[in-house]
Amino acid sequence: MGDTPTREAIATVWRIESARLIGGLVRLVQDVDTAEELAQEALLRALEAWPESGVPHNPGAWLMATAKHRALDLLRRRGMLDRKHAEIERGPQGVPADLDAVLDDAVGDDVLRLMLVACHPVLSRDARVALTLRLLGGLATAEIARAFLQPETTVAQRIVRAKRTLAEAHVPFDVPQGEALHGRIESILEVIYLVFNEGYTATAGTDWMRPALCDEALRLGRILAGLAPHDPEVHGLVALMELQASRQRARTGPTGEPITLADQNRARWDPVLIRRGLAALARADQLAAPRGPYALQAAIAACHARAATIDATDWPRIVAIYDALVEVTQSPIVELNRAVAVGMAFGPEEGLELCEKLAEEPALRNYPHLESVRGDLLYKLRRFEAARIAFERAAELTENLRERDLWLGRARNCEPQN
Amino acid sequence: MRVLVIVKASRASEAGVMPTEAQLTEMGNYNEELVKAGIMLDGQGLHASSKGKRVRFSGKQRTVIDGPFAETKELIAGYWLWQVRSMDEAIEWLKRAPFEEGDEVEVRPIMELEDFGAELTPELRAQEQRLAAEVASRKGG
């Protein structure tokens, strides 16, 4: 081991190893905060030792052995482990006897258990996101704060409170089986997708941390797909994220202006991610006959990914998938999306008819996108005056300035054409 | 960021010697680690350069040159496409790869455009994102 490791190199080892490390320690000490502290303490030791000794051959095992050593001391001091037990645990050379078991046996389970805990339903959604990025993503509090455009103190407090909530609720660190596991995994999927969307919908030209959230979410999704390979919705979500991410390069123009799906240069879609997305969707389909909401959305994204042009898109098929999605979600907003697809598949008249029905939905009253979709369909029907009113109403209803500009622009385009 | 990890050719790879079962197993385990860590996007091995060809451009002329090519160390025997957070992370992963004495592997960052995202969501684009938010919130109860 010739080279002296830099601080950055050691921090990198941390990012690679921290989830496994903390996961293993949580199993031992049954407390997230203590586990994280022990893991960080081991990292500090590494910072002292490795510049002298070089990075060990298996850095993860070194960190785990160091942390576990301290964990056993701690447990004994707290009286949680009697002396005899400790003797057996330690083995002859003071090395924990079951170290290999800790490292190899349930490594996957450890990481899954940590994900389940970080996304536990007793925590608020914000707390789950912060804790997941911190414990599973190995991100520092400052990085999470930057990514979510929030003050560092807010995020730090959120994490502290989350750990306290977990401790107070005596959340068990186990991996449930069967349906119960699926229910808990859904909570993880929700968190991962929130992280993805936070990055995906970020405004152009902002801090690199926001787009990095997409990569982080994809990575967490891919890891989870390895840990829970029999859950179809895990593959469904991975498929959805891969397919959406495949369009990232085509979504904005040279000056950062957004480009609609219809106008995107499909040659810029990422074929590697499309292939991965389609493969993940195929895996989801192999596992479950009726698709879940993520797989259904992925299937819609797959229809776009397979189409060489917007006109070559299989809109009737998209409508059929929306039918299933409406059934699963019972959401008027999904129905609105379906109306857009119906407009593309069977003509604007039919899409508009659905919109008019949806206008009676209380949930969509004052919903700007209902008006903008109506405006677009009316425009296609050359009912320019009605279209103008709809776009103006959409602009009035939105609080998003860029949307407002867009719709006011479309309203101006509706002036009598000839 | 993404990196291309370029595995250089060796005398053995150029001679078309296939890896032993032990080597395949070791590399298989390593690949599994990469997949489990969520960083491996793609990876392939290449045939020896004797099966390759080159096209040389000179003025309007195009000359096709048949392999094998001489400069073994500059040839490519395979590649991985990795998604990592930094070059440091790529290096840390690469150090763990089961290569042999004398092997050399190169890591190169792939150019990425800083043109992510857009808040502005015209109808079709908006369609998906509303849906995403909606489904996420429904699932959260």
Task: Explain how this protein is built.
The complex is a heterodimer of chains A (about 425) and B (about 140). Chain A is mainly α and about 425 residues long. Chain A has 4 domains: about 5-105; about 105-210, no CATH class; about 230-305; about 315-418, Serine Threonine Protein Phosphatase 5, Tetratricopeptide repeat. Chain A is built from 20 helices and no strands. In chain A, helix 2 crosses helix 3. With about 140 residues, chain B is an alpha+beta fold. Chain B has a 4-stranded antiparallel beta sheet, with helices on one face. The longest helix of chain B is centred in the C-terminal third of the chain and has 18 residues, at about 125-140. Chain B starts with a strand and ends with a helix. At the A-B interface, helix 1, helix 10, helix 11, helix 13 and helix 14 of A face helix 3 and helix 4 of B.
Write a brief structural summary:
The complex is a heterodimer of chains A (418) and B (141). Chain A is mainly α and 418 residues long. Chain A is built from 20 helices and no strands.
